[in-house]
Amino acid sequence: MERHRLLSELKKSGPGKVGVVLFALLITVSIYVVFTYPPDFGPIRWSNPAVWADNPKAAPPAWIHLFSDTRPAEHQVFETTSPVHAPSGETHDLEYVFQIPFTHQADEPPTFLSFALARAVYHLRPPVVTVLLERPDGEEFTLYREILRGPRPGESPPYQRHFTEPLRVLLSAERRAVEAVAGFLKGLEDPVPPQEQWQRNLTAALFGSPASPEAFGVLSGDYNLVVRVMVNDPADSVEKVRAVVGGSVFGALGTDILGRDLAEGLLFGLPVALLIGLTASLINTLVGTSLGLVSGYLGGVADVIIQRAADIVSNIPLLPLLIFMVFILGPNLWIIILILVAFSWPGLTIMVRTMVLQLRSGSEVEAAQALGASRTRIIFRHIFPHTAPFVFAQLVFFTPSAILAEAGLSFLGLGDPSIPTWGQILEHGFRTGAVFLGYWWWVIPPGLLIVLTAITFMFLALGMEPVVNPRLRRARSWRLWR
Amino acid sequence: MNSENVLVKGESLKVYFFVRRGFFRSTAVKAVDGISFQLRRGETIALVGESGSGKTTLGRATLGLIKPVEGTVCFEGEDISTFMDHRIKEFRRKAQPIFQDPYSSINPYMTVFQLVEEPLIIHKRGDRKEREKLVIQTLEQVKLIPAAEFATKYPHTLSGGQRQRVCIGRAIVLEPEYIVADEPVSMIDASSRAEILYLLRELQERRNLSFLYITHDLASARHFSDRIAVMYLGTQVETGPSREVIEHPLHPYTRRLLQAVPEPDPRNRFHLRPVIPGDPPSAMDVPQGCPFQPRCPESLVDECTMIRPPLNEISKGHHVACYLQGKLPES
Amino acid sequence: MAFMEIKDLHLYYETTRGPLRAVEGFSLSFQEEGKTLGIIGESGSGKTSLSLAIMRSIPGNVSTYQGSILFEGRDLMRLSAAEFRKDIRWKKISMVFQGAMNSFNPVIQVGRQVVERLLSGDGISPRKAGREAESLLETVGLSRDVAYRYPHELSGGMKQRAPIAMALYLKPRLIVLDEPTSALDVSIQAQIMNLLKQLKWNLGISMILITHDIALASDICDYIAVIHGAKLMEYGPAENILINPQGPYTQKLLASIPRLHGDTRPQFLSGAPCDLVSPPPGCRFQSRCPSVFEPCREKEPPWLEVAPAHWTGCWLYAK
After folding, report:
1. DSSP letters along B115-163, please?
2. What is the pTM of this model?
3. Residue A482: its chain B contacts at CB < 8 A?
4. Strand order in the sheet with A221-230
5. What residues of chain B lie within 8 A of the CB of A372, using their CB?
6. A455, B45, B57, B158: which has the fewest Cβ within 10 Å?
7. Mind listing the pLDDT tens digit for each residue in A31-83?
8. Is A293 in contact with A375 (CB distance < 8 Å)?
9. Which residues of B touch C257 (CB under 8 A)?
């Protein structure tokens, strides 16, 4: 009955409605994250520099061009495992062809162009890898041609190459690419920029045509990066090819100074925040309520001990102590949650005790006592139900403070390093000087997310207030009608 | 008086509460200050008095819910303070309270069925089937009919009278012998009060129950009790057969109290009702001598202020604690 | 012209099951000034809603509020909220709410709380207001120093006098008292009723006393209106109603009062007042009435004058 009333009351009030909608949204996103992200996201992705090596560093989000005149090149990463052409088994058809078509639409050339190849196997002689760039104007540049490393002494076929570390080539700095551009420019009739100028910035030449004797104009359109691998045995294979078109903007929320995709990290931070908030709140409510019930109902020595402990604990300044404890016990998420609980139960205990004291002397409890009901029965059937709506509202109310406390700790550099949280992302941004360098996309979104989550719970708590404090209920007249 | 027949007996009961006054001093609130009574099987004693007279406290003490500082309560001839474990549980089954406020004395989160079933669960009576049968029977006895329909309801859907009947059902389901009804009808509409009182009367006759009926309503005490004990500041000032006390009150306090009771007479509005001057003094400082003396219009100055008057039998079963011994001018 | 005339007053609350008819078609004329009208009904009969309707203190969930209340030649229902507040509330009609004694702020002196009401009226100086508060408390039989005490230092009877003092301040012509003595001991109740009688005799104030206790009403009321299930059942001079009631409901109500003297046992009314969301057709008392017959179940009873100025709504008296 009570639960039903809680929900209907929530649906009635404006803040309650907003709270429910926001909460549903947070939960949906969290479920998505839990099911799609690896459980050890922290160590294997977020804190692993190799994952982010190809990303631009401190790149703003891709959508900022909406607010500026020039359109920056977007960072694009492509990967393919399926060649458009594979050896058919006939003697002369011994070539793998991978194609990576991409579009370049910007007012500037990409910052770089790179390609990588992984997991190649050969049996007789090493294969030859050729990389070509087909441009929208029909030109074709050969950017790279090399033979994979031959058999080492003592090695026997099949020879495996680039299994642990892919072959990574920065195409826009390759000798062959320079030659190809030089050859292309020589064939033009118009005066072209001198080699010293474009050699340092090869992408301008690769993704453009000379617009004047001094500079290149950007050539927008559909490009195609072709990777050909010439093998000598039909059994030879190449598994994966990857291309990166370097840009100055990245994804939905940009990257940090290490090239990490902030959107990915912030998304992961959501279930973590909810976990911290709800777990800390749940444990806190459990501890606080049970101590309050015991203290209020049993009275005597138990009451004195619990109340004095509550007085002491609630007067200890939490933050310095938290810092100290984390320093001693190590930055572990569970320890942080436990410390939060250890110092926040007194408030709830004192309030529950007050309610229990009032209920204990009430006639309902007296009637139960006169029936010979046991203490446990009185506490659970005749006292707890009356405090339940209040306790439940406290559960919701405490959640944002736990989230904020964790964010604060992380911001001070005391977060659990194995689990990325919003506070940690913020902290890293601050430590790197994101604010002074103008990396707003690194600072504002985590801040907003913390606030949004806190506000969601605040709205829920506001919506529940009429249940906890019936005097606020809109239909006031029922009291007159009793 | 046949002592075999006495169910509950209080002997010079004193219940004091200690209230801190200032830092070191504490004062005794003498809620019940030396009361003796005997309640026979099948009898109802009405305990009448203003709020603060200690009548509720006395009721609670007879149920063993408060420990008296002095004196004993005997139930079936045995001192209830000596009851341990299973004896106390047996006593709890036999002695039940009904409270004034039917809104706050039952758990609003339980259905009527659960409420009436709870005593049976506590006392491990029968299995589910038997309990169900008993609960339905009890609901029928307290006139919550159709019982099966009422059983599924929650208290907030019931009227005050119906709730009080749930409370009564809870109290009688264990077939007790002694019931303390603490102002059972004062929160109920005047028009339905008699119904509840008749119900209690009927149950009493059927089961030979003994009632301690605590009330401030003298008119209902007259009709629904065998004897009336008038309390003032923790002491008994007058006790006797109901009719006798109402028709021939001996104590000045009882007289004034009776005059304050309104009867539906249109001539009432043309004159002021005689009232007891002043407010009842607090039980924290009970005056020396007769507790009613400061407000008493007939007080004989010297005797009344010195020593508390003893309870004397004036006529058969009619006792009064007053130096005037009932020699008051007829009003 | 009648002192106050209520015509066809309706007050419905909004509930999930539909409108709850708390006051339905209530018409009554309160003829003489300086008299007291008692409105008697059980809980759930709509008596508190009626008082709120008269005072226009309407809670937020009211769906219908109509009719007319003629007072001093003006229709109170037609006045704007501001006019009503400025001219009528507290000035002409004041009210003592049920449980008003418990509505005091425990940490503010009683006098100041009385003064607050005064200050909100018109801009008088705090010093003058303080003096006024003292003399007001005196008119209700409290000593002047009560003004400087805190609510917990007052006994129940003293606390109940303070709201009456507040209601008196602006010298209203009418005071609406909603259960002014509920939860008080008989002796205190008698003191309060005596106070009200004195105010009635000495100041000539008209009163509407709302209560569930017909014996209490007999203490002061000159006219008595009995309501049941949101409808007026009987209305007339106190003598008629108390000695010679005509409606079966009033008869039953009187019989349910335990008499102090004599051996007549009280009777009782079984059942509860009818459901106000979906009331039965016909008479509202039919399900509890001992003399119910055919027409009661079909049509609403007529409003008949059974004796001079004594009206009842019952089919028994229809020709």
Report:
1. HHHHHHHHTT-S-HHHHHHHHHHHHHHTT-SSHHHHHT--GGGS-HHHH
2. 0.77
3. 103, 160
4. A95-104, A221-230, A128-134, A140-147
5. 88-89, 92-93, 122-123
6. A455
7. 999 999 998 888 888 888 888 888 888 888 888 888 888 888 888 888 888 88
8. no
9. 190, 219, 263-264
Using DSSP's 3-state secondary structure scheme, residue B67 falls into: coil
Residue A471 has pLDDT above 50, yes or no: no
ipTM: 0.85
**How many Å apart are CA C12 and CA C61, to the nearest integer?**
9
Alpha-carbon distance of C23 to C9, in angstroms, equals 7
Separation CA B169–CA B157 (nearest Å): 17
Average pLDDT across chain A, whole number: 85
Shortest Cα distance from A359 to chain B (angstroms)? 10
Q: Nearest residue on chain B to C187, judged by CA atoms? A: B260
| CATH number of the domain bearing residue B238 | 3.40.50.300
Token pair listed for C128: 């003058």
Q: Which of A300, B163, B161 is nearest to C268 (CA)?
A: B161
Nearest CA to A394 out of A312, A296, A287, A315 is that of: A287
Domains, chain A, in order of start with CATH, read 2-45+262-473 (1.10.3720.10), 62-245 (no CATH)
Q: What are phi and psi of B22, to 5 degrees?
A: 75, -160
Count of all residues that appear for chain C in the document: 319
- Tokens standing for A434? 């994101």
> Domains in chain C, please, with CATH?
1-92+172-271+287-302 (3.40.50.300), 101-171 (no CATH)
Residue B87 forms contact with A (CB below 8 Å): no
For residue A450, which of A482, A471, A421, A477 has the smallest C-alpha distance? Answer: A421
Give, as one character, the DSSP assignment of residue A238: E
Would the CB atoms of A381 and B92 count as touching at under 8 Å? no
In chain B, the number of structural domains is: 1
Is residue B4 predicted with pLDDT exceeding 70? no
List of residues 6+ apart from A263 with CB closer than 8 A:
A251, A252, A253
Domain presence at residue B327: no
Phi, then psi, of A339 in degrees rounded to 5: -65, -40
Chains sharing 3 or more CB pairs under 8 A with chain C: A, B
Give residue C250's pLDDT: 92
User: Does B88 contact A at CB distance below 8 Å?
Assistant: yes
- Which H or E run includes A366? helix A363-370
φ/ψ bin of B318: left (φ > 0), alpha (ψ from -120 to 50), beta (otherwise): beta
Extract the runs of DSSP E, i.e. beta strands, from chain B: 6-20, 26-40, 44-48, 70-75, 78-79, 95-98, 178-182, 210-215, 227-232, 235-241, 312-315, 318-320
| Residue A271 neighbours by CB distance under 10 Å | 18
Taking an 8 Å cut-off on Cβ atoms, the answer to whether C61 and A481 are in contact is no
Q: What is the mean pLDDT of residues C149-158?
A: 83
Say how far residue B127 (Cα) sits from the centre of its chain: 34
Whether B233 is in a domain gets the answer yes
Q: Which two tokens stand for residue A156?
A: 């026997």
Q: Let me know if residue B306 belongs to a domain.
A: yes
What residue type is assigned to position A160 of the chain?
A: Q
Does residue B179 surpass a pLDDT of 90? yes
pLDDT at A195: 81
Of C238, C164, C181, C176, give the one whose Cα is nearest residue C208: C176
DSSP, res C151: G
Residue B259: give the domain boundaries: 3-263+273-320
Rounded CA gap, C94 and C72, in Å?
15
pLDDT band at C200 (very low <50, low <70, confident <90, very high): very high
Task: Judge whether B232 lies within some domain.
Answer: yes
Query: At what angle are helices A333-360 and A262-298 packed, to 10 degrees?
Result: 30
